[in-house]
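Ticket #4471: complex job returned nothing on first submit. Input attached below:
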Amino acid sequence: MSPTLGLVAILATSVATVLVGVIGIRAARTTSDFYVASRTVTPWWNASAIGGEYLSAASFLGVAGLILAYGADMLWFPVGYTAGYLVLLVLVAAPLRRSGAYTLPDFAEARLESLAARRTASVLVVTIGWLYLLPQFQAAGLTVRTVTGAPRWVGPVLVCVVVLIGVLSGGMRSITFVQAFQYWLKLTALAVPAVFILLVWQSHGTPTINQEGPPVFVAATTVEIQTGVSVEVSESVRVDAVGVVNGEPVDGTLELTPGVHALAQGTEVTFPAGAEIPHADSLRPLGGQDWLAPLRSNSDYPLYSTYSLILALFFGTMGLPHVLVRFYTNPDGRAARRTTVAVLGLLGIFYLLPTAYGALGRLYAPDLLLTGRTDAVVLLLPGRLVDGVPGDALSALVTAGAFAAFLSTSSGLTISVAGVLSQDLIGRRVRNPVRAFRLGASLALIVPITLALISPSLGIADVVGLAFAVAASSFCPLLLLGIWWRRLTDAGAIAGLVTGGGLSTLAVLTTLVLAPTGGWWTPALAQPAAWTMPIAFLVMVLVSLATPRRVAKGVSRTMIRLHTPESVDLDRGDWDPEDRWRVRT
Amino acid sequence: MTEPGRTPGGRVTITHPSRQRPRMRPASLTREIDEQTGLGEVYISSLIRSQLRLGLAVLAVSLGVLAALPLVFHLFPEIAAVRVLGVTLPWLILGLVVYPAILGAAWFYAHNAERVERDFVDLLDDR
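Support reply: We reran it on our side without changes. The output follows.
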């Protein structure tokens, strides 16, 4: 695709996002509007907005990339992302809406009547938010680079600026419209090219996707190295190369012997047909039956890793800060439930698509295993399979959709992190709540963008998976026990949050920073949910049982509030999260 | 604010004691709940318990089946190799079939949770 067209797609998405946001601003006048869209959003709008906010870079790009490299086991990512909403619907949605909590710290305070619990929850919201924002920025960098060839920092900075404009000017109301618009943009951007790709595949006589043995180049293929990469070659191959290989300039035929070779930026390597594809040494792609069948990954404990991932995704969704904020924009508990059912429908339609891209990418873009940038498969496939102007147009559409994914998820996360920062950290120093919110939004973006610029690129869906693990080990027990168990105390909740959140964060940081290999501890640290989540539950229950006198005084009233339908006229206590900004404005 | 038995304007309603009887109707269930009497607590607890039971049942069936899949694939690799319409079973189930199944479970839950709530509201209205 021509870089200009890609740039146009990226800018068009950005401008459309800002425009829809600006139109929404007119409706947002009071502070309460600013935060929660005055709760006048219908379930259908809200469901589209939740879908728009939730489908991040990980869903749009990452899942297909993982399927391309690792096959069947990776199907659990989209399944888990969806099933998480079922758990949320069944155990959390209506009671959480009825609690009136706008953020997780609000919930902790309302249920446990403790400021200390609120602060602990605040710190965790910021941690999870930053962990989730980091891969969004990295994905933006990858996309801008793939499409236009611009340096890596351009994408993150662009996303940051657009999000900041949207969030600072419009707040929640305009965000709701922006998000809803972006769900449909993302679905179209993935579905329309998918139809064309499937047609092309069919016109080729539906060739089998999976070959026997390791992936090979079907035809002679020239690969241009955009970012320097070191690749692992497993069988000797004669290639034509122009550029720099292993630090020495080459121009002509070259024998790549088994072992690790460094290919410098700008090098062009032409492989003969039938050559086994060398893979970037950061990847361990699977071949043949191992790719096709589940539980064949190179890690020593595939069953553990799969189950730990499933736990993190099923139970982490409810603890994601940007997901919960959305429930407050429902008018009542029943609407919150109906919204969630609609969300499950929208997600189900969307997640059929990344699988198709990943599988067909195996057939038509296996060279991505060499460059290591498998996350780019969704961006590249339409242009490769459809020639000429239609191909360019489809590529532009996919690029626009990818950008919508970064923008919507980053906006949602920024709003939630900013909400928490401004209410709990800045709010005490800056009196004007709108100014505090704006300051919080800037702070919410600065930290992850700095991290994204200085840290090495990691698998998008992997890092997002880690954010889910932290959420499942901290907020999941808080919400489930808080909603369904009267005897939860503030001491128990804090102990559980600190233990579960702390252990999983440590495991995540160890994996990200040290990247250990080998030993039983590697899968345990890379997928911590299977042990950190039970520990968090256990600590919360045991400490609560040991501190029975600390059960919140108003717990009965809170339980009535959480579980009874709004249509019944009952005393639900006088706690109202909106008081906070009603008093100050 | 007016004291009981006093209307605005300083007038005092004088009635025969027996006339006040009908006002002492048995306390409504909403008041039982508001005042957190034993009876009110029983009603709230039973509402919470039936919602929790419904939720756990839906999760046990839907996610239980889903979570059993890796174990089945692990123990019986031949099942994972079965092909339906040219696609192996794991890809067919995890790539396609789960999504409508999850939506169905969600709809079933939402429908029944609303029914539980309707029954609760009817119960309060009846007394």
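Chain A has a mean pLDDT of 86. Closing as resolved unless it happens again.
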